[in-house]
Amino acid sequence: MDPKIIVRCHPDRAVFHGYLRDRLPAHAQFAVDTDVRGHRWNFLRAMSWAANQSAVHIEDDVIFADDFWTRVLAAIDRHPNAVIQFFSRRGADLTVGSRWDPGRSFLGCVCFYMPPGYSAALIDHWPHWRDKDRHFSAVDLFVADFLRVRRERYWIEIPSLVEHRQTVSVVDPRRSRFRQAKIFAGTTDVV
Predict the structure, then answer these.
(1) What is the pTM of this model?
(2) Which residues have C-beta within 8 Å of that of residue 133, sequence separation ≥ 6?
């Protein structure tokens, strides 16, 4: 059975949502962020939608690689019981390529896979994350802490299977627009 697909969306990015719907399988679910408390609550809601099933979690400001879903399923077939990162901006992408990294280094929640049970376990970890009030919007640091506590590594798939659009962050508008992958398996020539 294919993993769930849960796209975390923001109403201000509705212009991108048609692109996503056209390119994802029909079973993709869209979790629109309408919570005034901030995007981390939409992140936790997306995890609750996945619960104990495997899931690919995606942000709405992505561009997909060529044959995106086929390539995602192939990576999951190779590592079905590991967290898989499908977007990376690290120097090792150019020198090492696909690799295992320690969980504490998890960075970016643009597009990643959670094996069965992990999304629910991540929710259970929420009350135990000591930095949740200091890093209010850094959900990737939350995932990193979860993996660190479990002493798990995660797989980074290179080339990246999504690209981060050059757009203003809805989480923190001070962030640079230029947060793109080192190696992307597609073209950024999209609307």
Answers:
(1) 0.89
(2) none
